[in-house]
Each structure stands twice: as structure tokens, then as C-alpha cells.
Amino acid sequence: MASKLLRKKTVEELTASATPLKRTMKTFDLTMLGIGAIIGTGIFVLTGKGALTAGPALSISFLLAAVCCGFAGLCYAEFASMVPVSGSAYSYSYVAFGELIAFVIGWDLILEYALQAATVSAGWSGYFNKLLEGFGIHLPVELTAAYGTTPGVTTYFNLPGFIVVLIITWVLAVGINQTKRTNDIMVMIKLAIIILFIVCTVWYVNPANWKPFSPYGIYTFQPGSSKPMGIIPAASIVFFSFIGFDAVSSSAEETVNPNKTLPRGIIYSLVISTVLYIAMTLIMTGIVKYPDFANFVDAPVAGVILATGLNWLAFIVNLGALIGMTTVMLVQLYGQTRICYAMSRDGLFPKFFGEVDDKHHTPWKGTWFFGLLTAIAGGLININILFELVNIGTLSAFIIVSAGVLWMRHTQPDAHRGFRAPGVPVTPILAIIFCAVLIAGLTWQTWVRFVIWFAIGLCVYFGYSRRHSKLNGRPEPAVADIESGKGPEPLVD
Fold first, then answer.
1. Cα distance between the two ends of the chain
2. Per-residue pLDDT averaged across 316-321, rounded?
3. Degrees to nearest 5, angle at CA 163 with 158 and 169
4. What is the pLDDT of residue 429?
5. In 3D, which of 437, 148, 135, 483 has the Cα closest to residue 315?
6. What's domain 2-416+427-484's architecture?
7. What is the pTM of this model?
8. Distances (CA, A) of 331 to 28, 183, 247, 359, 404
């Protein structure tokens, strides 16, 4: 029984079972994919809440979250060059730890990608409504937010968010070339708007607003408040900003020369996004005193522009926010479908999710299934309280991938690696420590919801996945092989 739960796939088995998706993604496309996933909600929404939590030291919080993701990103890059197939952390765990752990991580990633796309669609709807109001167009308030999400206002359905998710789903379904071009164009526009904001507003920075730089220290509780304040709690909040770079590794089977391009795309996107985040937060907290962010916590960038008097810039930045959130949803839904595609191919999900359309060379049915599910969730469900669930699911995946690099270096030191994470074992150990620190900053309610999701996943695995796994058709490896990370010869279907 234990051997079946820990049965592994070899790299050869994973690559041999890959189906012919189109290989068109290059380093530039992967970097744009990573930036598209990272830069969005973090700059346009979370900077307000983060400034109230850490003050001007929010820039350090972003750096702390980036360092955590950087260490984990190096581990992802090594695995991506070693196991160049769709599935990201799910596939890596299948090679390193076995089927049960792989399923659990895949189940976590479904939570991460789908839930983040749904939550971002709610934020996208808010910015879209503001943009329309600027032209004198007002949608019925009942159709501008999920049921009960707007205090004092009767709302039933988030129509704009529902529609934008369906449009993104269509782009994903018609082919990777269309997805790549759409994402590249939107990310370039978004970066141009962010740089324009920096260039136009940096002259309004008042260094006096940076004092005190860290009013709440590293970690503290304010009198009368149950929520922690300081650099680390703010880092736990803005960590959400960096979620998505791991989706780059999901594109392995659609990438040209993945051994080299995947690591580059992951690392480049993290570095560029971190520099922009730090620059933006320093400028914003230099223009507006950090307590004043309470007046516009939901739209902090707009509040900063109002303080400068550059009203003409507001429309452009609102457009940038829309584009930024659109690329986040596009990459999250892309990663979602590729994870389920990989799990279906291995027999852990029904074949429906792994069928590749002959015309578009994409998992058409699975893409539309999860696209509709995410659109409905964003349209109907009040998911504000579930933001932290995305974080805990992602941090758990980061820990498993980092531990996997340690384990594979020990059990398969001579395996081919197109990229080797520097500083092993220190790098993956630091990634695990940083992730554990950020997890510790989450609430107990988040842990309860995570355990419930985990329990549902175990029911799916033992009720369906274990019996339908493709590994059921091969001879069981010896216990010594399981412990060493070696598997049987690749299956020939």
C-alpha cells in the first residue's frame, strides 16, 4: 500500500508521455508571461494595505517576499530544466516524492490558480466600472459585484468580471500563439504605463514622508488590534503580488529549448518585477504619508496621483490597472489548465481534461471547463476572505519544490540538469525557512480552510485517482528503488 502511494515517475516517463503541444515560447515570451502574472494586484491594490501595515518599510516587505520567491524560483528553475514537461510543481513532486505528494501539490495549485483568477476578476470589475463612469456610463449596481460584497448596497452578480474571464478563456482555447501575442502586447503596455507613472511622479517625493521609515518595526501588535503590524506581516500580504511566476514552468511543453529558456524566464521576470515594486512603493510612500493611505486603501495608486494633481495621469493608470489584472488572470488560467492537463495525462484526473484539440493544439475542453467555473465563482461568490488561501497553497508548493531539489541532489546527483540552483543546500533551505515564516503570518481561519480543501483532495485521490493512475499498469519497483528515487523502465503505450 505504502509503495503505491509513493510510486514515482522517472523523467523519461514524463517526457515520453508528453503530447505534441506547439513549441513557440522563447525567453522573451516566458519573461513576459512571468511579469504578466506578477505585476497587477500587487501594485494597484495591495500597496495601500501594505503601507498601512509597514509604513515606508513596505519596500523592505516587498524585498523580503521577493527574496523568498527568488530562492524558490531558483529551485523551480533547476526542476524546470530537469523535468521539461507541463505540470510545474506537480510534475516535479511526481519525480521526487511520488504520486500522493504530487497529487496533493497539484490539488494545491488548482486552489492557487483558480482562486486567484477569480479574486482578481472582482478587482478588475471595480477598475472597469470606474473607467466607464469616467465616460458617463453607469452599469446597474446589482450587476457590478458578487452577492453581498458591497456593504450597504444590494448586489447579485459581477457581470464585468464574468465576461472578462470568458474572453480570456477563449484566447487561451484558440491557441498558444494567440495567448503569447496577447500577453506580450498587454505586458509591454502595462510596463510602459508603470514607467510613465514613475517618471511623472518621482519629482513629487518628499523625503520627510519616509520618517519614521519603519514605524511598526519587524513584527508587533498595536494596542487594541488583533492584527500584527510591521515588515513581516506586510510581506505576508504582498507575497500575493508575486504569486504566478511558477506558472511559467507550466509552459515547458510549449517552450523552445526549455532547459535554458525556462530558468531564464523565471529569474528575469522576478528580478524585473521586484525592481518595479520597490521603486513604486518608495515613490508612493514618499508622496503620501503612510497613514493617509487609509483614505484610498482600495485604489492607492489613484490616491497618490490625486495628491500630485496630475489628474490626466489617472485615466492612463486606470487603464494600466485593467491591463495588469487581465494579464494576471490570463497567466493563472493558463497555468490552471496545464496542471489539470498533466494530471489527466497521468490518469489522476478524468481524460476529459487532457484531450488536446487537433485544430488549436490546446486542451480545449479542460480550458473551457475551468474558465467557466472560474467566471461563475468570480461572478457569484464573495471570495474576499479566501485571499490568504491562495498564499498558503502557493507557499506549500514552494516548500515541496525546494525540498525536492535537496532530495534529488541526494538521490540522483548525476541526473541531467540544464540549470543548477547555486548554493545548494543553502538555497533550498533558505526558501523553506522564508516560506515557513510567511505561512506563520497567516490566520488560523486560513489553516482551517486549507485543511478542509486538503481533505477534499484526499477523498478525490483515494476515490478516483489512485485507481485510475497510469502507473497501475506497470510492475512495482523495489523498495530500494523507491527510496533512491529510481523508477522502472519507461512505459510504452
1. 25
2. 82
3. 130
4. 93
5. 135
6. Up-down Bundle (1.20)
7. 0.77
8. 15, 8, 7, 22, 24
